[in-house]
Each structure stands twice: as structure tokens, then as C-alpha cells.
Description:
By secondary structure, the chain is an alpha/beta fold. The chain has 23 helices and 7 strands. β3 (424-426), α21 and β4 (441-442) form a beta-alpha-beta unit.
Amino acid sequence: xxxxxxxxxxxxxxxxxxxxxxxxxxxxxxxxxxxxxxxxxxxxxxxxxxxxxxxxxxxxxxxxxxxxxxxxxxxxxxxxxxxxxxxxxxxxxxxxxxxxxxxxxxxxxxxxxxxxxxxxxxxxxxxxxxxxxxxxxxxxxxxxxxxxxxxxxxxxxxxxxxxxxxxxxxxxxxxxxxxxxxxxxxxxxxxxxxxxxxxxxxxxxxxxxxxxxxxxxxxxxxxxxxxxxxxxxxxxxxxxxxxxxxxxxxxxxxxxxxxxxxxxxxxxxxxxxxxxxxxxxxxxxxxxxxxxxxxxxxxxxxxxxxxxxxxxxxxxxxxxxxxxxxxxxxxxxxxxxxxxxxxxxxxxxxxxxxxxxxxxxxxxxxxxxxxxxxxxxxxxxxxxxxxxxxxxxxxxxxxxxxxxxxxxxxxxxxxxxxxxxxxxxxxxxxxxxxxxxxxxxxxxxxxxxxxxxxxxxxxxxxxxxxxxxxxxxxxxxxxxxxxxxxxxxxxxxxxxxxxxxxx
Length: 503
């Protein structure tokens, strides 16, 4: 299909994309795009790539916690624009959000029960989705990853239509890139293999060959990335702790995110667990019905349901095995669009098969109320964010309180304050880099005993302590004081610079 035809049939999608773009700009108008510690790593790596340094972070150490593609993407955008990422991050995120919405429109155009009113209603919901806007107002790799999920769904759909070698090559490319945007992209590799395994009307030999090539492609760039990490840092994905939350707890956390997506629901633990299990069971039943009925296994709806199941199960299991931040909207947001589609795409078909006028009017009225409540909840949430963001900036390092920090201002203005080759640490080294440009080391997390011992065995070092940072995992000054002589060099109202030496 020609691009002109795609745009002509998706004028409503283009309008929704523009609206989404404007909303992102409005939410980031004061203070710019949201910046978290992860964002600072991406920013530093992108800047260093332009300077010829390969994936070096804000502390002058190799980036291994995150895969390579997103820093390369940011670096490429900086090269094209000739500007620093912080100067155009709002526009970039707005553009990615607009692309996301437009791709959603083109996908819905090809639903089995394609409906103009359904498509436009969903587009309107996506434009004001707190789940998506929380991500697309931050400088996070999820912005690229969620767009890539839609690209995967489109490519998988087209491969299912005609299993040509050309479309297989495109699928292999998409699958290869996914895990090096985010490690969670492994779920896309798994999903692709699942669909190739259950594909009908194809010989067992060709099916096995397609799966082999898909696994090979999915592991290729990821293996290279992990091997590089092992060479430069001694670990494949950084110092990660074993999971400390149970499977049941992670199911609950996912359910709490689902509760936030639904209108005016106050959840408890039992309800959150039940909601997750309900959506998983319902999606499994829908997926099985579509497959065994053999009526729409080549449809977008079938692929969407399969991905919803694969990603949801994958993220719950991996969070149980490995410890990372509590499962929250940021991590679950790649499910939002598929969740919305999976449990609403049948509505146009239901309305069409209702023949009695009174029942049809009643059904449409109920649906209108439900959509109104859902969208009202979203609009109220986004408007609340808009008011807060306009006053103080997006939560994180984009907030005014960080930009006004006397400690960080002093470090920026006194680049030669620390003598010679002094070793400098901070409990918020990302903030030190972002606001002063100075690369310092992070205080170690107390759970890494050997690293803490190496840290304390040093004769002399400095610590920039920022009161605004509240990470409880870091060793604190009281603990350092048990092994070192601590001398406050200069004190500010938001932090202290310490010199630590042998007792």
C-alpha cells in the first residue's frame, strides 16, 4: 500500500497524532522533559558516543545496565539536529508519541470488525492516556520500545498474510533490534517464535527453520551487547540482585497497575491479584478460541492477544527471578495499548449482531457511560499533572528544586575544588553530572559487601551528599563514619561536601 493511500485513509489518525504531540509539549512546557537517574545515563552515553567514546556513562564507567540502541538513537538524533538532547527532547518524545498514535490508527483500520467510531474513540483515549503520557514525558527507552512493539505487530501481521522470504527478513530485523532497545524485548523474540510455531499451512521443516533463524536473530545483537558488557565490566547486565518479591506479590503489583488504568477503582491486594488473573485467563481463552476456531488467526487481534499474554507472563516471571524496581506503570506500560485492544476489539461486532433496536440503544448507552467514565478519569489525571508540572516541572531532576540546588551550583562553578586526582562519590551522582557536568562515582549499595569493603579500604575520598536524594540502598554517612574520619568541608542548605580519610 502506498504511503499516500495510508495517509488518506488515516486522516483521523493524523489528527489524533497531532493532538498527542501537543499534549506532550504542554506537559513538558515547564522545565522540559522528565529526567530520572536512568535518563542521565542515556544522556551521558549519547553525548560520549558523539565524542567517540563507546557507551560510557555519567560516571565515566561503561554502560551495562541498559542495552545499546536507545543511547545510539539519541546520539543519532543529536548528530542530525546538531543540538544537545536536552534542547529537543520534548519535541523528540512528542514525535514518538505522535508516531505511536498514528501507527495505532493504521492497525485499527485493518481490524476484522473495523469501525470508524471505535477507531476514533480509541484514538481519543490513547491521546490522553496517563499510562502512555507518564512514559512519553520522560527521557526513557520505553518511548522507543513501545513504538517498536507496534512495528513488530505490523510486521508479524504482514508475515502471517504472506510468509515470503522478504517479510521474514524484515521480521528478523525487528526481532534482532528489540532486545537491545530494552532487555524486556526478549518477550518480542518469544512472541515471534510462538507465532511461528503455531502458524498453519506451513511444513514442519520450514517452520523449524523460521524459528531457528528468529532465535538466531533475536540472540545476535543481544549476545554481542552482553559479551561486550562482560569484557568491559565483568558482568553481562550489571550488578543485579536476586528477586526478593514472590510470584504472588508481582501478580499483585501488575494488578495494581491495571487498577490505575480503570476509572475510579480503589483496589486492595486481593482485588489486584484477582484482576491480573482475570485478564490473563480471559486473554488465554480469547487466544485459544481464535486459534482453534481457525477463523482469524491471521488477524491483528490474534497477534495482539498473543503479545499481551507473552509480555505479561514474561515480566511477572523475570521480576520474580531478578530484582529491579517494583513493577509499576513504567514497566507495564508496553501492555497498555494491547490491553485496551484485546478487551474492546469485539465491541463493534457485538453491536452489529444486535438486531432489536431497543437492545442496541441500551447497549450503546451503557458503552457510552463506560467510555465517558474511563476517559473522564484519564482527563482528570492528565489535567492534574499539567497543573503540577506547570508549577514546578515533572517529578525527578526536571523539578525546579534540583535546578535551584546551591550544592550543585557550587560544584558547577568550582570545577577545580577537589584537589588533584581525588576520588569523589555522591549519593546522587546522576544529578551531579546533569547539573554540573562533573563525573563522580556513585556510593555503593550496602548489599554488595565486597564493593563496600573496597570502598572503605580507600585512604581518602570525598562525598557530595545531597539531601534531596533518598535512595535507602546506598551506604550512608553514618555508616561511613564508623570506619572513616569524616570532615564536613562546606555545608549548604541542601547538602554537604565531606572529606573522608583513614581514622
